[in-house]
């Protein structure tokens, strides 16, 4: 067995046959048919394609989902369900817009489909998107407050710089999160190359805030054109917003949850469902977490929007997690990528070593399938880890055992740096099916990363033998893409994809598919915001099993044109080539045209459109089809969101198939945070009845007390001006203890109403007590909070003082008088009785100066002119001490310590003199040294 494992790992690196199994997943297969890696500049639209295969023996309705990085906008698909007949395939196109502010780097996009009838019928595939770096404007934040009181307007200042080489007109758009009113001046500016513009920003905060929060302000600068790149940049900064008081007393730690009441209807029938779900921490420390969903009864057969009844519970700690109920269970890519069922799972991870197991039974399959999976893993360091997996699958009928599979695998993940990621897995199985034994293996290699000079690569190889019965079966698949810079902004790409299934040409299977695709192209972005791409693909798909069902070849030249405006992104593709049906011996011209549009006129509304015309992919026929889709999203108010989607599909067949689909969602948030959701779906196909489905749900958010907090203490106090008569209060002073904040009222009083017992450090925001003002006692100060008690404290504020001065070196100025002696190296020393006969040489740098008052010490090194300055010094008695380190040779400090008494607001300046030290030459006895004769 060990030899078998080592041999297969050896095959990983020797195998040249790059080929993915179409037979994967459970009941449905999703396979990427476009390159595994694609490049894009920010602000552009990118597309991809996936082949979805219904592998069941009945019609299925599928919901599709495209998972994108935060802020990216979907154009297609539009969320409208689609149907596939038994054994039918369909190419699904995805398109999305990459925001102009997306940072350069690699991102992963996942496309998945799931059956509406059986949640276990699901599959997904992924591809990588590389956002290229482009020349950007620069925004530098010059001034901002660290914290402000809720209800106040704060001001900030930033500088916009044109780092390019072209004159550019720029529009500045600020956005606050949370959505506070923001004003920026100027809002539009024209900058010459290398010039800058100061931006003045004002933000009005909400006085009704009940808890401390961080306000993030995003400043986006969008230019119309830039010669050397996309003229856009986004800069963010944060300001802490302090409410008047935080920490409202609540003796319980609470869990966020909701109750949802849902009614569905379709063609006159309907159903009702209740859902109770939630997630969060069970303790204040966050060491114990929970996630649960209880939903029923089952309304799947009542409407397209009907959902299955599901019951699951998950519990997480720092050492283990436990899962019970209905969910997807995962082991590894080759053994079990994800399997939906009702079961249980435990994972233990005490340190570098981890282990776990799960057991499930499928819910809607007949007969039911059972799976037991277990693993052990070890993470040696941040760059290397291994994992061993075991999966047992059984399916029983009423009369005999249908199959029994034991599947083993070992995984290794190697990630030495951010530019190399290698994922390896080898698997083999011992299976018994219909009283026959089978053995086979599978392996997977996934490598992706980046070469120098912005060259990216992605390679994946999967092989699963005909008698291997893991997640993949009887398939060989390879995909690889590399993108490289050619000259300046001109970039090239090459991708290869191949697929084989029915590897041993089993005649019991209907076909033995083989696909091969070679694709190469170049792309170039222009200064006007236009990008152009030119790609050529040679794609062949044929049946290797006699009699051959299909054999065709596509040779296509694709021209892509994209344009980015301020709020509009356009992308168009023109494909021209030839389609050869080798079975019929017929060749015809091939044409495809597509257009994608994304329009965002404001932050509250977006629109997208796509249209496709031409020959279908993965079809040996010369039929043409066309489709168009439109979607719109409106945030009417903060509490009202409307989304509508419409598409129309036409197939140029003898039957003239046509289908229209309409899908909409309306969400309304009530003042008490409850919200209503209404969804509708309408479909009409030629020759069939109209279909319509509706959903109405009412969601009630809950805050469930799950544990009683430990005893709570309270801290109260007062901040006042000690200098003025009557010691008047200081309002709007900001104080903090950890994450809790408080603001003094008109009486100068503050309160922290709910603090756990213990010692805390109380701080005060200096900017909130006035310019050149300090507290009489050093802060932060430690205060002890006791459970069930109120701790009192008073804080006095006075005008700060300042101590400044110089450390100056002096030398003798005696002009050869006898009180100066030569020390033997040409330097003079001065007598003690003639210190006034000195001249200043200059300030002495890097001398350590210290001021102390018995409670605190402040230290500073002198600058190049020997100067030092201590600001915001508290009134009182201070000692100034200068350390002798770094003094010139044969010099000393005239005074090592100076005593000062400071009144509020007083400034004192001192001079510390560094004097030369006397070196006396003394002759003890005169004489002559004679050499002894030998």
Short descriptors:
934 residues, mainly beta, Maltoporin, Chain A, Immunoglobulin-like, 4 domains, 26-stranded antiparallel barrel, 5-stranded mixed β-sheet, 63 strands, 62% strand, elongated, disordered N terminus
Plain-language structure description:
The protein is 1% helix and 62% strand. The chain has 934 residues and is mainly beta. It folds into 4 domains: 2-132 and 251-503 and 512-577 and 592-706, Maltoporin, Chain A (Beta Barrel); 138-228, Immunoglobulins (Immunoglobulin-like, Sandwich); 710-799, Immunoglobulin-like; 801-916, Immunoglobulins (Immunoglobulin-like). It has a 26-stranded antiparallel barrel. β19 (252-266) and β20 form a beta hairpin. It is elongated.
């Amino acid at each position: 067995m060990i030899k078998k494992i080592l041999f297969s790992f050896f095959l990983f690196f020797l195998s040249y046959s790059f080929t993915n199994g179409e037979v994967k997943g459970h009941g449905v297969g999703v396979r990427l048919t476009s390159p595994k890696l694609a490049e894009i500049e920010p602000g552009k639209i990118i597309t991809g394609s996936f082949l979805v295969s219904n592998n069941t023996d009945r019609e299925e309705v599928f919901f599709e989902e495209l998972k994108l990085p935060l802020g990216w906008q979907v154009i297609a698909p539009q969320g409208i369900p689609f149907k596939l007949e038994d054994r039918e395939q369909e190419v699904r196109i995805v398109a999305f817009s990459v925001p102009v502010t997306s940072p350069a780097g690699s991102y992963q996009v996942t496309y998945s489909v799931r059956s509406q009838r059986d949640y276990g019928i699901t599959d997904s595939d992924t591809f990588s998107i590389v956002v290229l770096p482009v020349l950007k404007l620069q925004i530098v934040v010059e001034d901002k407050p660290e914290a402000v009181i809720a209800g106040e307007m704060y001001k900030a200042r930033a500088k916009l710089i044109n780092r390019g080489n072209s004159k550019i007109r720029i529009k500045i758009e600020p956005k606050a999160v949370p959505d506070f009113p923001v004003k920026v001046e100027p809002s539009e500016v024209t900058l010459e190359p290398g010039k800058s513009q100061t931006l003045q920003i004002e933000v009005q905060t909400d006085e009704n805030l009940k808890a401390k929060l961080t306000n993030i302000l995003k400043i986006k600068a969008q230019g119309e054109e830039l010669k050397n790149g996309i003229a856009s940049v986004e800069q963010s900064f944060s300001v802490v917003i302090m409410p008047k008081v935080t920490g409202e007393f609540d003796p319980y730690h609470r869990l966020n949850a909701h109750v949802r009441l849902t009614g569905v209807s379709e063609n006159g029938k309907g159903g009702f469902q209740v859902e109770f779900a939630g997630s969060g921490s069970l303790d204040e420390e966050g060491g114990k977490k929970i996630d649960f969903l209880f939903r029923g009864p089952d309304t799947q057969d009542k409407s397209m929007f009907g959902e299955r009844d599901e019951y699951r519970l998950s519990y997480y700690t720092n050492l283990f997690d436990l899962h019970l109920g209905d969910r997807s269970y995962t082991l590894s890519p080759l053994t079990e990528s994800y399997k939906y069922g009702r079961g249980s799972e435990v994972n233990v991870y005490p340190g570098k070593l981890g282990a776990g197991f799960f057991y499930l039974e499928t819910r809607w399959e007949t007969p039911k399938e059972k799976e037991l999976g277990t693993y052990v893993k070890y993470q040696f360091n941040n760059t290397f880890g291994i994992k061993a997996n075991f999966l047992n699958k059984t399916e029983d009928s009423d009369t005999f055992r249908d199959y029994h599979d034991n599947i083993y695998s070992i995984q290794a993940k190697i990630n030495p740096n951010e530019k190399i990621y290698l994922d390896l897995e080898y698997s083999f199985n011992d299976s018994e099916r219909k009283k026959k034994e089978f053995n086979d293996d599978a392996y997977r290699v996934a490598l992706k990363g980046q070469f120098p000079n912005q060259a990216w690569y992605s390679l994946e190889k999967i092989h699963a033998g005909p008698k291997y019965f893991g997640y993949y079966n009887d398939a060989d698949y390879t995909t690889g893409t590399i993108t490289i810079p050619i000259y300046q902004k001109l970039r090239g790409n090459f991708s290869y994809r191949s697929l084989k299934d029915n590897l041993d040409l089993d005649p019991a299977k209907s076909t033995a598919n083989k696909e091969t695709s070679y694709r190469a192209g170049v792309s170039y972005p222009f200064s006007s915001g236009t990008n152009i791409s030119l790609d050529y693909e040679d794609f062949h798909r044929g049946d290797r099993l006699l009699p051959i069902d299909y054999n065709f070849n596509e040779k296509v030249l694709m021209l892509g044109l994209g344009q980015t405006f301020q709020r509009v992104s356009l992308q168009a593709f023109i494909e021209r080539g030839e389609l050869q049906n080798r079975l019929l011996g017929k060749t015809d011209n091939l044409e495809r045209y597509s257009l994608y549009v994304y329009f965002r006129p404001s932050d509250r509304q977006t629109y997208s459109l796509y249209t496709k015309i031409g020959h279908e992919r993965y079809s040996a026929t010369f039929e043409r089809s066309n489709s168009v889709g439109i979607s719109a999203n409106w945030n009417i108010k903060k509490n009202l969101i409307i989304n509508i989607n419409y598409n129309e599909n036409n197939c140029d067949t003898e039957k003239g198939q046509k289908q229209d689909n309409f899908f909409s969602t309306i969400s309304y948030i009530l003042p008490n945070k409850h919200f209503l959701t209404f969804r509708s779906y309408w479909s009409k196909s030629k020759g069939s009845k109209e279909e319509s489905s509706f959903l109405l749900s009412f969601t009630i958010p809950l805050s469930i007390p799950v544990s009683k907090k430990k005893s709570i203490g309270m801290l109260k106090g007062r901040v006042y001006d000690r200098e003025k008569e009557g010691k008047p209060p200081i309002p709007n002073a900001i104080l903090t203890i950890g994450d809790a904040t408080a603001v003094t009222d008109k009486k100068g009083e503050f309160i922290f109403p709910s603090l756990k017992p213990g010692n805390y450090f109380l701080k005060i925001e200096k900017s909130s007590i006035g310019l050149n003002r300090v507290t009489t006692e050093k802060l932060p100060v430690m205060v002890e909070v006791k459970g069930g008690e109120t701790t009192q404290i008073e804080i006095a504020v006075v005008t700060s003082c300042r101590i400044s001065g110089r450390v100056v070196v002096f030398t003798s100025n005696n002009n050869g008088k006898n009180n100066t002696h030569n020390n033997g190296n040409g330097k003079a020393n001065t007598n003690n009785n003639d210190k006034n006969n000195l001249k200043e040489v200059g300030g002495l740098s890097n001398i350590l100066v210290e001021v102390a008052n018995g409670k605190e010490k402040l230290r500073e090194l002198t600058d190049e002119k020997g100067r030092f300055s201590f600001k915001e010094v508290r009134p009182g008695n201070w000692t100034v001490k200068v350390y002798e380190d770094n003094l010139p040779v044969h010099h000393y400090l005239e005074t090592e310590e100076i005593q000062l008494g400071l009144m509020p607001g007083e400034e004192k300046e001192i001079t510390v003199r560094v004097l030369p030290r006397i070196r006396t030459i003394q002759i003890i006895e005169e004489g002559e040294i004679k050499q002894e004769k030998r």
